[in-house]
Design goal:
The protein is α/β, with parallel strands linked by helices and 294 residues long. It is built from ten helices and eight strands. The protein has one domain: Aldolase class I (TIM Barrel, Alpha-Beta Barrel), CATH 3.20.20. Strands 1-2-3-4-5-6-7-8 form an eight-stranded parallel β-barrel, surrounded by nine helices. Helix 6 links the parallel strand 4 and strand 5.
Amino acid sequence: MDGQALRRSIQACEGRVLLSETIANASPLYPSVTNAELAASFGADLLLLNVFDVFHPAIEGCPDAEEVNGESVVGRIKRLTGRPVGLNLDPVDPDAEQAEQLDALPAGRLATREALNAAKQLGFDFVCLTGNPKTGVTNDATVAAIQLARDVFGESGLIIAGKMHGAGVAGEMGSRLLSEDVLADFIDAGADVILMPAPGTVPGITVAAAEQYVQFVHSKGALAMLTIGTSQEGADESTIRQIALNSKMAGADIHHIGDTGFYGIAVPENIMAYSIAIRGRRHTYVRMAKSVLR
């Protein structure tokens, strides 16, 4: 399916879609499989690769099959897992007001036209425009990146955009991270899915605040992804269940679990606990057990 068919499928699931983020250049938790495969096996519906350089494409633990059959490393992960696979790119603002010393990123991780074109050629099913810690990603730069992504991926592409945390920008932290004006700018620029912090992950983001923002996003015709971008993917399972249920009460269409429970992937049991909380054992176990050949 193309990006817009995927969007309709997500919407039809009524808040039971789980996205797991993994770090592409981190050593796998267990060397026999990639972190992406592990996340899929514990119940993730969508896979999101972070710290992936589109100009030097590689995923730790995944041999590049290009020499054998012309398959990219992205295509190989898609074939092994049977899941849609997306990519994080960072819309860095060189003029961001710093709250801390910012990290420099390679060109293959920046949300530029060249990187977006490379991502499309690699076969990613969707693109996520957001900021890693200490990168200097701002809301204004994200709006410009959304417009670029829409131009590159066309009307059929699926674009997710927003901020999980301040990303090192002084004026966009905590409760100042979001506003309805900012969300409207993202949607008007062409974003299909707006990401924002899940209740309890960023100071000031309560269930009531998240629900207000999600309802606004829905009123503008977009979907909402509530995220754990604060390493709480490594918390205890009761915390995961609380975040999951609060996010569902707030109206999340996609539930995101982050990539540093262990470095590179959420605690696998937490992926399963999140999945069970939002859709029960039936759907979780079927997702975990179903062969990619079905």
